[in-house]
Amino acid sequence: IKQKSLKNIQKAQDPNTINDIRVELLGKKGAITEVLRGMRDLTPEERPKVGSFANSIRDELNQAISKRNEMLEIDRTAKKLEKETIDVTLPGVPVNAGQPHILMQVIDKIEKLFLGMGYEIVDGPEVEEDHYNFEMLNLPKDHPARDMQDTFYITQQILMRTQTSPVQARTMEVHDFSKGPLKMISPGKVYRRDTDDATHSHQFHQVEGLVIDKHITMADLKGTLELVAKTLFGKEREIRMRPSYFPFTEPSAEVDVSCFKCGGEGCAVCKQSGWIEVLGAGMVHPNVLKMAGIDADIYGGFAFGLGPDRFAMLKYGVDDIREFYLNDIRFLRQFSQKG
Ligand code: PHE
């Protein structure tokens, strides 16, 4: 038994086989176990002899088994290490890195600019109350100017915000002027009931700004917007303001930026006039201040609203606003931040 078993143990290639051999010899019903058990039938003189002989064989076999196990383990580790060798000369697998959406890149840039000037960035709900989206902004029910912003109503009082101005209304209402002026921008998505085409999307973005303090003038507004135009479109840019109408500002202005060549080759966003309209702005209407509980005789301010979608279209020569929302990876990849 001993010789045969030792041979088998040496031949065994995996721990399971070894274990089977062990059970066969030393298990409950194993051959050696049987011999040891059979000792009670022996005479007292035979017992110690047979006993020590059987025990020595058992120990020898046990030793052989653990040795073989050790050997196999060493073997296995060696094989594993061999397989795991890394060939450092192989070319790397490219990591598919993402990047912020081009609109987010434009908004980030605007946010950085305004943070640098001490503005606060404020978020608000996209599902908004009529009260904040219109009423508080000097647009009572039945006001004809509501037609300027075709609205998705959810109920009579709840709607998808058509502008980010309601965030200003909410902030004005709670701002504590004893702690300083109000300077904020509110970037975000807005919704209008438009039929989508190259220049219209039922969902787009706005960044609106609001400053309220004592002694704010239109010159402050113009200086701020000029900085926006120069930061986003280039130092050589100029702006001009044309009289316009918004219900929440008086006076109101549409703001043009001087024409320019955009990112891609041969892409020139120039109109005959040499100017392109980029945003709306004005001095906050006294009614808006009053409705927010602000003393319009002491405080005043300016507000503006710009569309990052339009900015990005002009800057990068994108001729269809829908490109921003189709999420075609081939389109989006063009705006790698390194470029
Ligand atoms: N909220 C306005 C709009 O969407 C833009 C705007 C904001 C105009 C602030 C003037 C002042 O039309």
From TrEMBL:
InterPro entries (alphabetical): aa-tRNA-synth_II, aa-tRNA-synth_II/BPL/LPL, Phe-tRNA-synth_IIc_asu, Phe-tRNA_ligase_II_N, Phe_tRNA_ligase_alpha1_bac, Phenylalanyl-tRNA_Synthase, tRNA-bd_arm
Enzymatic reactions: tRNA(Phe) + L-phenylalanine + ATP = L-phenylalanyl-tRNA(Phe) + AMP + diphosphate + H(+)
Location(s) in or outside the cell: Cytoplasm
GO molecular function: ATP binding; catalytic activity, acting on a protein; magnesium ion binding; phenylalanine-tRNA ligase activity; transferase activity; tRNA binding
Cofactor(s) the protein requires to work: Mg(2+)
Residues binding Mg(2+), per UniProt: E250
Residue ranges the record marks as coiled coil: none
Any single GO CC term annotated in Swiss-Prot or TrEMBL for this entry: cytoplasm
Biological process terms in GO annotation: phenylalanyl-tRNA aminoacylation
Residues in Aminoacyl-transfer RNA synthetases class-II family profile domain copies: 110-334
Membrane keyword on record: no
E.C. number(s) listed in UniProt: 6.1.1.20
Enzyme class: ligase
Protein biosynthesis among keywords: yes
Keywords: Aminoacyl-tRNA synthetase, ATP-binding, Cytoplasm, Ligase, Magnesium, Metal-binding, Nucleotide-binding, Protein biosynthesis
Cofactor binding mode and count: Binds 2 magnesium ions per tetramer.
Quaternary structure note: Tetramer of two alpha and two beta subunits.
Family as reported in the entry's similarity comment: Belongs to the class-II aminoacyl-tRNA synthetase family. Phe-tRNA synthetase alpha subunit type 1 subfamily.
Full protein name: Phenylalanine--tRNA ligase alpha subunit
Gene name in the database record: pheS
